[in-house]
Amino acid sequence: MKSILISLALLALVSCSSDPVFHGMTNQQKEDYAKAVAGEYTGTYVLYYSDGSNDAKAAKIEGAQVTIFDQTMQSVLFHAIPISRLSQVVKDPALAEALAGLPDMDFMATYRFFDLRDNGDVNWGYNDFTIPLTLHVGDTDRHLLLKVSNASTYYRLTKANLEAGTPFANQGSFELRFDGIYEGSTPIEDFSLWRDGNATFLVFFQMDDKE
User: Fold this and answer.
1) 30 by DSSP, 3-state: which?
2) Looking at the whole model, is its pTM more than 0.90?
3) Quick check: 181 and 201 in contact, CB under 8 A?
4) Is the separation of the CB atoms in 173 and 140 below 8 Å?
5) Where are the strands (E) in the chain, listed by range?
6) DSSP assignment, residue 83?
């Protein structure tokens, strides 16, 4: 029995020794890693949306662009999001009509480095953000808030990819999850992904392969 316990303890030590170690990042490391991720990226927007019925829709928009800034701005800019497509999922007909007339919009989110692994890989991600919308709905101007979140908490960027100038080579896509439209703190359209029968609106940015 004693030998079995010793063996189990040794196995636990081996298992723990192989787990990654996470570190905080110095300001210089954050600056260096921010330079490594900064740049202009092209790809495809893949839209997935549903009005709450079983008739889910998908669309692709080629030539999409995302700009990631260095440590000075520490932001991700999603260019020309087709916000008018929200008109196909909201329940209020007057609000849907107002949304349908919106031009494509640029969305900006701040980003951060969560932590650094002992092998040089880093966990990176952008924060939730809110877009103000002033819409003429019926005979009234309404000041609304569109809440967008990052459904994936973070993306792991490997040291090898960072050094090769392809920091996001192992990422399938970035996801923007539209949580809902609010008037102040009151939700007027809920796009919760986890509730049956709710409208859903998701945008994925699939990055082009970089040589």
Assistant:
1) helix
2) no
3) no
4) no
5) 22-23, 39-50, 57-68, 75-81, 105-117, 122-126, 129-137, 140-149, 155-157, 174-183, 186-190, 200-207
6) G
Pair of tokens at residue 73: 């701005």
Spatial separation of the C-alpha atoms in residues 201 and 203, rounded to whole Å: 7
Residues comprising the chain, all counted: 211
Tell me which residues of the chain have a pLDDT lower than 70. 1-23, 151-153, 193-197, 210-211
User: For residues 156-187, b (16+ Cβ closer than 10 Å) or e, as one string?
Assistant: ebbbebbeeebbbeebebbbbbbbbbbeeeee
Residues 6 or more apart in contact with residue 202 via CB below 8 angstroms: 47, 48, 49, 151, 175, 176, 177, 178, 193
- Please report where in the chains the tokens 């609000």 appear, as a residue: 95
What would the two tokens of residue 146 be?
């569109």
How is residue 111 written in tokens? 């980003």
Tokens 């889910």 belong to residue = 56
